[in-house]
């Protein structure tokens, strides 16, 4: 589908990125944003068929995501994690409500949110937007919406959805299943700062 670009931010994912790209490239344009990796992430993604753009240094997930939105040329963009956790077959269900002009942003809602801090951020976000998984990394949205998002926060949990809503987006979600991957999960220290950002959106945006 040439009207769909899958944006994959990646940092030191040389062991996982090639199969992720190969699974996606059969049906979609794939744009990997290499976030200053020190391994062979960029070359492996390119050899697997993705278009690769490289950040000058490790700038973080949000700058990589925004770079992908700017570089994409399709009408709909899908954000997809580089570690292989998500299933490409779920993309069609995410993009369907957008193609039908019913929604502007569709979240892939996980059945289980792994981190307690993320669950707290979810509950706060639900005070304004009725979604179950505001911190998912698997989303489909119109590019016209994507490029308006400032995302000036510690991470995307909660605030991605809240900012999109403040910009007038119609938001929904579809349930997804995730794959089990062998990858250590560190402590998400940024969620402490993100708590303040979510409160700011709740209190000061309409």
Structural summary, described in words:
- The chain has 206 residues and is an alpha/beta fold.
- The protein has eight helices and seven strands.
- It has helices spanning 17-25, 41-47, 61-71, 91-99, 116-125, 143-146, 159-166, 190-204; strands at residues 4-10, 29-34, 51-54, 76-79, 105-110, 139-142, 171-176.
- It has a seven-stranded mixed sheet with strand order 3-2-1-4-6-5-7, with helices on both faces.
- Helix 1 links the parallel strand 1 and strand 2 (29-34).
- The protein is globular and about 45 Å long.
- The termini are far apart.
Q: How far do the termini sit from each other?
A: 35 Å
Count of individual beta strands? 7
Task: Give me the oligomer status.
Answer: single chain
**Going across the major beta sheet, what is the strand order?**
3-2-1-4-6-5-7
């Amino acid at each position: 589908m040439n009207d769909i670009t899958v944006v994959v931010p990646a940092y030191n994912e040389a062991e996982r990125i090639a199969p992720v790209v190969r699974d996606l490239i059969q049906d979609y344009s794939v744009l990997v944003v290499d976030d200053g990796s020190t391994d062979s992430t960029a070359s492996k993604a390119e050899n697997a068929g993705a278009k690769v753009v490289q950040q000058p240094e490790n700038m973080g997930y949000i700058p990589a995501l925004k770079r992908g939105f700017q570089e994409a040329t399709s009408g709909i963009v899908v954000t997809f994690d580089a570690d292989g956790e998500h299933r490409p077959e779920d993309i069609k269900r995410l993009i369907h409500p957008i193609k039908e002009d019913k929604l502007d942003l569709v979240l892939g809602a996980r059945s289980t949110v792994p981190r307690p801090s993320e669950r707290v951020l979810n509950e706060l976000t639900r005070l304004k937007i009725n979604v179950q998984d505001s911190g998912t990394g698997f989303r489909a949205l119109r590019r016209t919406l994507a490029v308006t998002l400032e995302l000036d926060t510690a991470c995307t949990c909660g605030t991605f959805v809240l900012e999109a809503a403040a910009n007038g987006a119609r938001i929904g979600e579809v349930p997804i299943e995730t794959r089990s991957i062998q990858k250590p999960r560190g402590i998400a220290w940024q969620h402490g700062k993100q708590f303040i950002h979510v409160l700011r959106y709740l209190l000061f945006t309409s």
